[in-house]
Structures are given as C-alpha cells and as structure tokens.
C-alpha cells in the first residue's frame, strides 16, 4: 500500500492512522470511525497485478458480497464487519479492532502451548465456526494468523474475506485450492470444494501445531504438501508426544474422510473437556463417534510453520498457556489453610 494513505479519510468517515500489518492479499490499518467516534480496523484487499480491469471489478464485487455476508455473523469469537467501501477502484473492509496478538505471534514468541491452553483457544474458535456455518458461511482460510488472542482474554476468529456462501453462486474457479496448503483438508487438495468439515480439519492442524510445535503436513514445497494431502489416510497422522488429553480430539478432527470427521458441536464439547483438564478417557467418552486409538509417542513430523513457529518449550503468556485445572486451585487453597492454621497455633503458643 502507498504510505500516502496514512491519514486518508475513506467514505468521509474512516480515518486511517497506523499500519497494523500486511499479508498475501492486503494491508490492515488501525483507523477511526469519525462518525461514531470508535477505533476500527480497516483492511484493503489488493487484487493480483495480473488480473484484467474486468477481473478486478468482478473480484471486488464478489468480496463486497462476501464481506456483507460475513457481517451477518454476530458472535463474541468472530470479528464484526462494520462496513465495506469501494473508493478510487480499491476495496476496503471496515471491521472491529481487536487489541491483542495473533496465535501465530504467540507461538513464534513462546513456542508450543499446553494441551489445556490450546484446547481453550480451539473451543472458542470452533464456537465461532459453528455460528458461521449456521449462517451458510465457510471460512476456508483457518490458520494461526487468523486467530487473535485479545487483551480482554477473548479468542477471535478473523478474516472471513475469503468466505463463500453455500446458497450463493460459486464465485471461485471450481477445484481451485483456497488457503495455505498445509492447512487444506485432503478433499480440497483433491479438488473438491471446501465445506464446514474443511474448516474443522484446518482448526485441527492449527491446534496440532500449537501443542506439538510443528506443522504436521508441511512439506518442502507447496506442491509436495498438496500431493501428500491428496493421498492422506488416517494412518498418516504424525504421532503426538505433547498433546495429552487433546490427542483424541485432534485425531477426530483430522480424519481423512470429511463424513467421519468430528462435527463442530462435538468438537466444541470435547475441547472444553480438554480445556478443563479432562483426561483422554473423559474426552473419548463424551464423543458419540467411534473411540480413536490412544495417542502414540514419538516425534512430530513436518517443518516449522511461518505463522506458528517452533520456539522454546514454554507455554504462551497469560491464560492461553496456563494449565491450572480445578485440582491446582484446590491445592493452592489447601496450602493457604495450612499456613493459616500454623500461624494460629504459633499465636496461641506465644500467649
């Protein structure tokens, strides 16, 4: 984006302030809605240079429809789309500003998370997906950089800009993969259109990365990754050594057949069990699907992910990586009671 956009006023309403980041398809700015007096995030979606003017107009028309559709999602774990602006031949999406950092940044800085911490994030993200799927929207680009960890302890799924409405016209070229190859579901790698089950697969890959520290399906090149995923079977899932209670949930999300994959409602329930410190037995018994095999030990496969990274073994900061269940809280309370009784005993002895 042109640095001259700093301070620009869009649609006589949205003032661009500071660039927050840029990616493959656009640039995100911190802005201010001067009508309502609130901070917003403003994303310019940039068309590929090789597109003709007619193709750019068609792309922007599609993205405008999809952004307006995403605005129908009303959920605390999904970013709210406020407005869509087309100005000077450029498209801008005005969204809720979430203060915090992305899961990608957290993993890059702190390394793998505890199973409970990753499960908490997964449960909130899948809750947002359930709302989107009920509205007929498939995200199609679940990855660590699109999951935000807010300073208010919210987990927020963002960037529904590539979403497609099931009931609408098929805007994309049939069979064209959408999203990062290592997060694509096997059926998408084979050319099928993504559905809700593909979002759940991608979330499973993200959570595997978050807890194990490696991207399970990433290969040396995008082409090699796509070939590997197209031929994927359940037996190809790399073994997990850190996932603990989260392992059976990941196995259910990463089933090769989308019809056998854990659905969103069950995934949310199992993730909340894992987040509360429930063991593998508790997680499996909560599922009505056939019980997955026990988690195997060994090293994870695949290279480090640009979004997620693979730093030290520390958990992520704040509540995301903390692994204090009810037992930990009871232990702290019991310790405080013992100290209090000891102090009273000393006081009585000195009287």
TrEMBL record:
Region of interest (Disordered), ranges: 279-322
Keyword Transferase attached: yes
The keyword Repeat appears for this protein: no
Gene3D superfamilies in alphabetical order: Phosphorylase Kinase, domain 1, Transferase(Phosphotransferase) domain 1
Sequence ranges assigned to domain Protein kinase in this UniProt record: 14-271
Ranges of biased composition (kind: Low complexity): 281-290
Signal peptide interval: none
Keywords for the protein's UniProt record, in alphabetical order: ATP-binding, Kinase, Membrane, Nucleotide-binding, Serine/threonine-protein kinase, Transferase, Transmembrane, Transmembrane helix
GO CC aspect terms: cytoplasm
GO molecular function: ATP binding; protein serine/threonine kinase activity
Pfam families attached to this UniProt entry: Pkinase
Gene Ontology BP, a term: intracellular signal transduction
Transmembrane segments: 329-350
InterPro entries: Kinase-like_dom_sf, Prot_kinase_dom, Ser/Thr_kinase_AS
PANTHER family: MAP/MICROTUBULE AFFINITY-REGULATING KINASE, MATERNAL EMBRYONIC LEUCINE ZIPPER KINASE
Protein name: Serine/threonine protein kinase
């Amino acid at each position: 984006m042109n640095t001259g956009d700093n301070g620009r006023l869009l649609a006589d309403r949205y003032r661009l302030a500071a660039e927050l980041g840029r990616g493959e398809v656009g640039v995100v700015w911190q802005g201010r809605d001067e009508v309502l007096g609130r901070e917003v995030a403003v994303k310019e979606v940039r068309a590929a240079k090789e597109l003709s003017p007619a193709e750019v107009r068609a792309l922007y028309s599609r993205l405008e429809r999809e952004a307006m559709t995403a605005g129908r999602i009303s959920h605390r774990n999904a970013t709210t789309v406020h407005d869509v602006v087309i100005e000077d031949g450029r498209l801008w999406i005005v969204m809720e500003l979430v203060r915090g950092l992305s899961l990608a940044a957290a993993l890059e800085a702190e390394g793998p998370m505890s199973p409970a911490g990753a499960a908490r994030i997964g449960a909130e993200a899948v809750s947002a997906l359930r709302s989107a799927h009920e509205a007929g929207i498939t995200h199609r680009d679940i990855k660590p950089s699109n999951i935000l960890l807010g300073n208010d302890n919210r987990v927020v799924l963002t960037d529904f800009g590539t979403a497609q409405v099931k009931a609408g016209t098929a805007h994309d070229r049939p069979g064209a993969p959408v999203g990062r190859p290592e997060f694509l579901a096997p059926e998408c790698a084979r050319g099928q259109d993504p559905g809700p089950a593909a979002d759940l697969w991608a979330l499973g890959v993200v959570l595997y990365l978050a807890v194990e520290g490696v991207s399970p399906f990433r290969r040396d090149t995008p082409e090699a990754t796509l070939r590997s995923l197209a031929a994927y079977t359940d037996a190809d899932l790399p073994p997990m050594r850190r996932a603990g209670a989260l392992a059976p949930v990941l196995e259910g999300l990463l089933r090769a057949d989308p019809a056998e994959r854990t659905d969103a409602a069950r995934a949310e329930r199992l993730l909340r069990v894992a987040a509360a410190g429930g063991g593998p037995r508790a997680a499996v018994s909560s599922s009505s699907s056939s019980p997955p095999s026990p988690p195997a030990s060994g090293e994870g496969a695949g290279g480090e992910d640009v979004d997620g990274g693979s730093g030290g073994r520390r958990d992520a900061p704040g509540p995301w990586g903390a692994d204090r269940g009810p037992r930990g809280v009871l232990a702290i309370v019991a310790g405080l009671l013992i100290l209090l009784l000891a102090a009273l005993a000393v006081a009585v002895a000195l009287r």
